[in-house]
Amino acid sequence: MANTHSVTDVRLLLELPPVERFKKRSTTGKAGAKKKSTAVRRRLVHTIAGVLVGLTVGFLMGDSTLRLHTGCREFGPSLSQPLKQPAVSPIQWAIEEDGPANGTTTSDELPATLLFVGVMTANQYLSTRAAAVHRTWARQVPGRVLFYSSETSVRPTEAPDLPLVRLATVDDSYPPQKKSFLMLQHMWDNYGDKYEWFMRADDDVYVRPDKLETLLRSVDSRKPVFIGQAGRGNQEEFGLLSLEYDENFCMGGPGVIMSRETLARVVPHIKHCLKNLFTTHEDVELGRCVQKFAGVPCTWSYEMQTIFYHNSSGREAFTGNLKLKEVHRAITLHPIKQHSHMYRIHNYMKGLELQDLQQKKILLHRDIYAMMEQLNKLQSHPESSVNFMLTKKTKLFNARPGSPNYLGDPKLLGLPPGLNKFRPRRVMDVIKWDFISKSWFSDTDSNPRRRIESFAKEGLDDVVREVMDIINKFSKQRGRVIEFKEIFYGYHRVNPLYGVDYILDMLLMYKKYRGKKMTVPVRRHAYLQQQFTNFEIREVINGVEVKQKQLEETFSIDFGIEENTMPAKDIVDNGLLRIDGHSIENIKQSLDKISLKTINFVLPLFNRHATFIRFMDNYESVCLANNERVTLTIVPFGQTTLNKAVEIVDAVKTKYPNARIKLLPDLEDSFARALALDFGSSRINAPEDLLFFVDVDMLWTNAMLDRIRLNTIRNRSVYFPIVYSEFDPIVVYGQSVSPNHFLINQDSGYWRQYGYGIVSMYKSDLIAIGSFNTSIHGWGKEDVDLFEKFVKKNPKMIFRAVDPDLVHVFHKVECDTNLSQQQAIMCKNTRYETYGNVDQLANTIYKNQEKFYSFVNKQINKSTKAIPSR
To answer: Distance (Å, rounded) from C-alpha 249 to C-alpha 817?
Structure first.
């Protein structure tokens, strides 16, 4: 099939937009070549000097002139047009209760006069939908927003600043025809001479003011214009709306926009339009009125279906994934029936705006870097981009790391896009590419071939959407559109320093609709790069964001920062060292209270004498020697285990008389971990006690104890740490014991993601779910059963995180032949995982090829003999 497609290999680099570390989104750009001639350098020097002189002269001219020019740039030529006088109505159309509204400004700037928005709402929605609109997109409109409701409406106490207009003689009945027309009358009577554009919106529409402003500034508001998604009714209504063959209307849901000229022509005839209604549809009648008296139909452009986007899913619209091309392209989104999703969409849109700002910042860094390279500033002194001086006393990059004014590392962000930014000096530094097809292939994973995981799929979808937007950016002018079909294959790698790289081979569909029409499948290679930005950190202590005071003073913490590298003011301004709304003493008390929590260890024990000695040595050095608030309850199985444990415990108690170690009577039953943990926890009395269920194979540090105290919250959080489990040290090191149990890398062990046996919780939470299932005997399954109980009760209680200070020391896993089938499978899988990683097992096979082939042949012969002959 691939041979039938024309292949286009694009030899350029599309750059994806920047993201915070390890998050995926995208844009594109072309890396241009740099010329280094003497003439170019001379022109650049003259240009920079001219800019500096111009800025100095402009500053000295005084800020009154500056304010005048800054304010007037918004008006455009339409304000010089003679205004028609607002129509004077003998009826009092509205009782206005106007709270603090956007569009109001300080004395230093002129008000925005581009757009006036009237939002139609009802009394029952003032505290929900209307309030959500007012708190989100309405605050960013380049003009003013008022909310129009019935005469009896009351401003809700939840939104005391909602700018509300109560329309006289209007109720909240549906359809809101009278409300709509009288709203237009009020707009013109009070604001007709102040704004260029007027928008009629519902309270269930989300508007992107930045994109709307761009659209409106490209259209002449002096002409009669009626903008929206054109409609002629659905199939059932077609021919029944009294529309002529050349008439249409703007669908009201996604929003309707009129120029000042259009509104001026319509308003004098509002009474006539209200008396001559042919349908019950408010938007149809408005469109008929505009057509008759302004002489313009709604915009017929097919593009308006995507700009003013209406989702036909009803109440479920925009409640799912927002990473869709329809959402990204739209100026308005309708309907948003669940007002809580208005905030969700607003948060998503603000995230897109932040990415745009990050991209602009990176492009400025690259411009600076390119200019300095042209001036030969970087050849002799690579560090000069950081230390470049604008004047004798002013550095180009003045803010230091940690300050809110820090602009990022110019040496990293200034590099132009390219797949060769990082040049490894050693073979081990080479960053390997993952291969993407129907599956994800990677030699860095324990499963070299696996399904494409959800986060990777989401990242690929983002990349494809951005690439297609770039390709189709000028499709309308060129009379063609290109649609994405699928990815044949691709390559992916992550450079922690610079970003994410993609190479994709995509199948596209080329559709030409102007001139000679054609549809042709094509392939295109895209080379993409997604730049990482700086790390952003938010400090939280016990659920409270740290903001105002320095942590060094509050908690006597030494950050180890060298002098003259990061001043204390920069640390405070960065937002890491301030406490918002809480006194320093309260924070100290909270931390002290957490540190005073007693952790009650519960340890099941069956034989494993040497391992128990190692466990007690670690318990002594970490807990007892440091006076940690801990207790230890040991549950032995069998008299032999009990006798040996008594000797070790007595020796520790002799050394630490105050140690709270309890050795319970032995359980004569066969080993059952569930029974042991249930028995041990029952001997810990108070429901508010913090329990920690541990195994004899575990080692830990003091940091692990702090995490248990912080991450386990009564009635709110149960902590299931993801422990690090060692590989067989004979395979890794060629010796029976690991030289460093806390060495964590891909060769020494793995994270046991599906192990739930190590857990901390409060006894009251354990009792609430019914404790352990003591009918489970032998190895495993009791931890999964406990985990599932918490999931059923409240999945939000479960907190999981990798803990590098909690290590499971390797031991050979012996699977009892009496285990149930499910337990036996779990036991064998665990045993297989502990041998080593893929590279180590492959090397073992390479070194012992003859033994391996002999073993394989024996297995084949056994399976052949087991097949009965016919």
So the answer is: 77
Burial 509-529 (b: 16+ CB within 10 A, else e): ebeeeeeeeeeeeebbbbbbb
Smallest CA-to-CA distance from 677 within 610, 760, 793 is with: 760
**Burial class, 404, CB count within 10 angstroms (exposed 0-12 / middle 13-18 / buried 19+):** exposed
Q: Read off the amino acid at residue 652.
A: V
What is the length of the chain?
870
Give the Cα separation of 22 and 71 in Å (integer).
Answer: 41
Tokens linked to 224: 């009669």
Decide if pLDDT at 866 tops 70.
Answer: no
Q: What pTM, to 2 d.p., does this model score?
A: 0.63
SS3 readout for 346-411: HHHHHHHHHHHHHHHHHHHHHHHHHHHHHCCHHHHCCCHHHHCECCCCCECCCCCCCCCCCCCCHH
CA dist 601 and 598 (Å) reads 10
Is the model's pLDDT at 82 over the cut of 90?
no
Separation between Cα atoms, residue 745 and residue 804, nearest integer Å: 10
Considering only residues 60 and 835, tell me which one the structure prediction assigns the higher pLDDT.
835
Q: Report CA-CA distances (Å) from 281 to 174, 202, 230, 667, 797.
A: 10, 14, 14, 79, 50
What pLDDT digit, counting tens, does each position of 719-777 carry?
Answer: 999 999 998 888 888 888 889 998 888 888 888 888 889 999 999 999 999 998 888 87
- Residue 304 CA to residue 331 CA, distance in Å, equals 10
Mean pLDDT of 847-864: 79
Question: How far apart are the C-alpha atoms of 187 and 224, rounded to whole Å?
Answer: 17
- Which is nearest to 720 in space by CA: 794, 801, 788? 801
Query: Which residue, 256, 263, 251, is CA-closest to 293?
Result: 263
pLDDT tens digits for range 280-297: 888 888 888 998 899 888
Token couple for 799: 């907190």
Q: Taking the CA atoms of the chain, what radius of gyration do you get in angstroms?
A: 35
Count CA atoms within 13 Å of residue 205 on its CB side.
25
CA distances from 797 to 574, 678, 693, 718, 789 (A): 32, 21, 17, 6, 11
d(CA 423, CA 433): 15
Does residue 35 register a pLDDT over 80? no
3-state secondary structure of 529: strand
DSSP class of residue 868 equals P
Count Cβ atoms within 10 A of the Cβ of residue 319 and give its class: 0-12 exposed, 13-18 middle, 19 or more buried. middle
Across 47-93, where does the E strand assignment appear? Answer: none
Residues 6+ apart with CB under 8 A from 380: none
| Mean pLDDT, rounded, for 588-596 | 68
- Spatial CA neighbour of 521 closest among 532, 531, 506, 503: 506
Task: Check residue 667 and report its DSSP letter.
Answer: B
In b/e form, how buried is each residue of 825-835, taking b as 16+ CB within 10 angstroms? ebbeebeebbe
CA distances from 272 to 28, 181, 267 (A): 53, 11, 10
Question: What is the identity of the amino acid at 65?
Answer: T
DSSP symbol at 546:
B
| Residue 598, CA distances (Å) to 570, 630, 785 in order | 38, 5, 26
Instruction: Find out whether 242 and 170 touch, Cβ atoms under 8 Å.
Output: no
**Which of 184, 189, 181, 196 is CA-nearest to residue 86?**
189
User: What are the C-alpha distances in Å from 227 to residues 308, 334, 476?
Assistant: 9, 16, 19
Letter string b/e over residues 688-717, b meaning 16 or more CB atoms within 10 A of that residue's CB: ebbbbbbbbbbbbbeebbebbbbbbbeeeb
And the tokens for 785? 């059963």
Q: Does residue 175 have a cis peptide bond before it, meaning omega lies within 30 degrees of 0? A: yes
For residue 306, CA distances in Å to 137, 248, 336, 478 come to 19, 18, 16, 19
C-alpha span between 816 and 671 (Å, rounded): 11
For strands 308-310 and 197-202, give the pairing.
unpaired
